[in-house]
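Re: the request from the purification team.
They wanted to know what the chain is likely to look like in 3D before they choose a buffer screen. I agreed to run a prediction and write the result into the notebook, where they can find it.
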Amino acid sequence: MLGIADSIKRVCLVLGIFVLFASSQAVAAVCQRADVVVYSGTPGGIAAAIQAARLKKSVILLEPTAHIGGMMSNGLTKTDASPRKNVYGGIAAEFLANAKAYYETSDPIRIYFESRWAESTFNAMLATAKVKVEFEQRVLKTTKINKVITEVAMISGKTYCGTVFIDASYEGDLMFKAFVDTIAGRESRSKYGETAAGVQKLARPLVHNKQILVDPYVIPGNPQSGLLPGVIGVGQKPLGSADTSMMAFNYRLCVTDTADNRIPFSKPDAYDPVQYETTARFFAAMEKAGLGIDEAYFVGRTLTVRNKLDVNSLRYFSTNVWHIGYDYTVGTEAVREQIRTRVRNHIAGLMWFGQTDPRVPEHVRQYMTKFGYCADEFTDNGGLPYQMYVRQARRLIGQFVLTQKELVKKTTYKDTIGLGFYPMDEHGMIRTVLNGYVADESRESIGVGPYEIPYRAMLPKAAQVTNLIVPVAISSSHAALTSVRVEPTFMVLGQAAGAAAALAPSGNVSKVNVNDLRKKLLAAGQILKF
């Protein structure tokens, strides 16, 4: 009898454990719900979340990493366009005004701030709006029923349900996983009749009207020896043709020469001076042409606040890494991390090269020894930013495609929800060989001035999904995106997306009353007409 009793106890114990396990799994599988679910804590995503919350909607903001703020809390610490009166309003203007007041700056053209201040300020704004932020939540898949996204599942195992979803990521990952029409690359000139579209004419480096001849081969003058790192052999592709080329990526470094806040540049484990051979040859060619190298060549002179420099790329042979955008965009997270590591190593190695390599002019090396990463920024990452500068990735092909024509002609719309301002500024697309020397394919900036952006440019086709808004990877041509792609504009679009999500009847974003949306945006300080 004791044996039977023991057996019964064991069975009960096993059943109890099974029930507890099943219960815990059921709890883990419960979908966290909000009226509005925003994917990615970029400035555009933050503005969307805040605006929806201010309109009394429950909001969950899903951030794929451990830090919010996108590029504005990752080294891009100046406004990308003049904060001109009557261009940027609403939450964008609120953030910039806070920065100007906090740092007591008087620059009439730009507003500067620190990355750590931007992240802290964004966190405070979200907390005040009562937005729930979930970190390290990278999208795995979406579930759609009758063109309605019902939930998004994350790599972490968590799921989130909402009435409206907003994809505010730079990469457009949520919209892609919702199976809407997208494009990765650039269109041909004939697609939308854009002069700035497609492949452009190759040009050798031009400095002070002098062509700088940089030999691209491992053994100078010997094509059979192969090409130097960073140069590909495609040559001049047909002008105006479509391709998958994208703008070069980098990290926006924050550096200083303040001794007690400086982490000296150090030699990376993977350092290989061959990676910077094109830079060394550029310096030699400049010297041959009788042109000097600025001592600040590697770190620039963009002084922001508290003696910190915002280090961006120069046009020739600097922090930009070319020819990686498409692979990053379509790649798995593992592939993307490999690319991020490559770009981080390139930039860290470039800083070391700049202060140690004998082919760098001595006055430049001496200047570089004064600088290092800021010890009070990115403190859990060795002073290096967390976020790579993804200048473009996938773009939505939605209900309206914004193109160069609309920007230049300053087209007006009945559903305008904000303004853009920045020039059509394209970073390097292809670095290749032309008649035996390095040549780059890109184009000069095109000024377009303030222009209107319609609500439809954020909406996928209604036949594909009805409750998704895309304010960052918007429906635009490559040429138009080279203007739209700046953070204040993304904040304007994000705020409009948040307001639209709050107003969408039964979550259907195509049925938002545009007049009501514009009234809400005007009441929130958004500027709709220049």
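For the purification team: The chain has a mean pLDDT of 93.
Please add any questions underneath this entry.
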